[in-house]
Amino acid sequence: MLVIFIRAVLLYVFILFILRMTGKRQISDLEPFDLLITLTIADIASTAIPDVDTPLLYSVIPIIALYLVQQVIIRLSLKSRKARAILCGSPLILIRDGVMQENMMRQCGYTVADLSDHLRTHDVFDVTEVAYAILESNGGMTVLLKTEKQSLTREDLNLPKETVGLSHMLVADGKLCEHSLVLLGVDANYVKNRLQDMKIDSEKDVFFLQRAADGTLTAQLREKLGSECITLPAAGGAA
Amino acid sequence: MILYKKIQLGFTIFCLCLLTLLFILPSFFVSKDEIYVRAKCDEAMRALDKEDYVSAKYHCDELHAHFHKRADRLGFFLNHSLVEAVDAAIAEACKLAEMEDPSAAGALVRVQHAMEMLMKTECFRLGNIL
Fold first, then answer.
1. pLDDT (tens digit, 9 = 90+) per residue, A82-102?
2. What SS3 string covers B56-102?
3. Per DSSP, what are the bridge partners of residue A35?
4. Measured between CB atoms, which of A7, A54, A64 is closest to B18?
5. Quick check: A28 pLDDT over 70?
6. Are B86 and B67 contacting, i.e. CB atoms less than 8 angstroms apart?
7. What is the predicted pLDDT for the residue at B1?
8. What is the pLDDT of residue A237?
9. Angstroms from B57 CA to nearest CA on chain A
10. pLDDT value at A238 more than 50
11. Contacts of residue B27 in chain A, CB cutoff 8 Å?
């Protein structure tokens, strides 16, 4: 069993090293060690399921070993910036003030076409519009546009601030959402009264009832009742 | 989030305890069984040397009954085909001893060898790791 544990740890370190060497192109959204554990656990599990000749412990131990190494690596990367740089890599600036950084691109194996692809996913079609494009350690790209190309904000227009809130689902699939009621500080009677204001008999007739941040209620009736949408403004009165 | 952290910590401690147990128990059980099997095989072989087939058959049957009981437990830790190979070799030795065939000794040597192989798979050796 100890042998299997050590084999798993050795393989983990080896694959992590290989993943780091392949560069960020191979990784998407996951840190190298996250990707590694996902791949290896999936593979161990898939080979263990049909192999009835091998004890299940032969698969459980490597998975536990990977989990423990993963925990150690996460803690290391949280505690030490240097360890994090070694394990996950560092962000690389690929475009600086509209100029592609050829050396950096070569370092991470990015071609002009790859970079253009990424920029287009950020709705950028002209490299000269970019102030900074940074390739993050998880393979994702962050793009900061030049100030003259950035969208206007309320602040730029000197418009008054508006509070932003979440909308809450009060009824879903004909059932009250207790969690939302608690969050809003209301009870089932509140929902019942509002539904009556909307001329709806019961929450069972409602596919969903949502309360927007400004207090506006929107209900959609069930399909058998015509899937009609009814809106009740915050002040009252059905629309 | 705090509850999740506590559960995660608990799980990590559980994993460490489980691993510690699994590092100790299988080698303990296998080495215990290996000593028994080896001793019984030696006794049966000594009886075969003296052409005492009744005694050899008795030792082989005892060994077979003992190993049959242990096979399930060993299968928990070891490759099932290896455990079954030992079981089959013991059964063969029993049958040969019953037939008063001197080649039962060869079957007993195979039992000892198979048991040795089981031990080796559990040993902490560089060869096993690589």
1. 888 887 778 899 999 999 999
2. HHHHHHHHHHHHHHHHHHHHHHCCHHHHHHHHHHHHHHHHHHHCCCC
3. none
4. A64
5. no
6. yes
7. 63
8. 46
9. 30
10. no
11. 1
The closest alpha carbon to B69, from B44, B47, B101, B37, belongs to B37
Whether residues B12 and A54 touch (CB distance < 8 A) is answered with no
User: Who's near A81: CB < 8 A, 6+ residues apart?
Assistant: none
Look up residue A158 and give its two tokens: 């000197």
Q: State the Cα–Cα distance between residues B81 and B61, nearest whole angstrom.
A: 21
Cβ atoms of residues B41 and B108 within 8 Å: yes
- Residue reference for tokens 């959402």: A177
pLDDT band at A31, cuts 50/70/90? Answer: confident
Give dist(CA A178, CA A86) in Å, integer.
Answer: 46
d(CA B70, CA B89): 15
Residues B26, A64: C-beta atoms closer than 8 Å: no
- Subunit contact A10:B26, Cβ cutoff 8 A: no
Return the number of other C-beta atoms located less than 10 Å from residue A33's C-beta: 21
Give the three-class secondary structure for A232.
strand
Between CA A110 and CA A94 the distance in angstroms is: 9
Helix (H) or strand (E) holding A155: none
Q: So where are chain B's domains?
A: 26-123
Copy the structure tokens of residue A66.
């990977």
Distance CA A79, CA B3 (A): 22
Q: Is the domain covering B26-123 a CATH 1.10.510.10 domain? A: no
Residues A38 and A29: their CA atoms lie apart, in Å, by 13
Q: Which two tokens stand for residue B94?
A: 């029993």
Query: Residue A85, SS3?
Result: helix
Mean pLDDT by 10 residues, chain B (130 residues): 79 88 82 87 89 88 89 84 88 88 88 84 69
